[in-house]
Amino acid sequence: MEKYFFAFLLTLIAGLSTGIGSIISLLTKTTNKKFLSISLGFSAGVMIYVSMIEIFFKAKDSLVLQLGEKTGYAITTLSFFLGMLLIAIIDKLIPSEENPHEIKNTSDKNNKKLARMGIFTALAIAIHNFPEGLATFVSALQDTSVAIPIVVAIAIHNIPEGIAVSVPIYYATGSKKKAFMYSFVSGLSEPIGAIVGWLLLMPIMNDLVFGIIFAMVGGIMVFISFDELLPSAREYGEHHLSIYGLISGMVVMAVSLVLFV
Domain limits of the chain? Predict the structure, then answer.
């Protein structure tokens, strides 16, 4: 029971970091875009490296034991890309105007449109974070040393999402309390996703299902990195800064795996 509680706690921390983004946007007049660019690139590096080096092969080992070498490898690969497809479909269903990963210019919006944009961005983030919550939870159950860097990476990537929600709502309503509330609540979908997803899967959970889900987690992480984190990192800063952050994230993840796994 203790490992489930710890896995949920990690997922909760990752999700509620949207509130950190909200606080930053409400307390500071400007955002350090270079630091944000490096941080987002760093998150992408962590998630890409751990997904393709650690998560993928742990899933493969589990499935090979159940299905044999050739079939196990094939199902791992298929599940990896199914994870990408799942998160791609979710992104596709969210209109670009409300997508939290689309860079928006708020200078020419009136208050009503700003409020609508903030509310729908919060809803979009809630939908989008649902599978992320399950991914974090499953990773934490499988291996804490792998899950903690993932949680840090997702937390960093959730910070600008909190900014994306709170800024338009604050400028539309003038209420810091409302801006923070919407941002905070949108992050709750991550731990909720963990609970709901796990309850649905628990009756059928075995080594085979776990291996498939873990491979899908890897696919989800890689898609998020290439589709969201790296483009956002380039938007916020210089191209080279995002790449420096990417490589740094990979190096840190590689060293941590060598030392602690």
Answer: 2-27+34-260
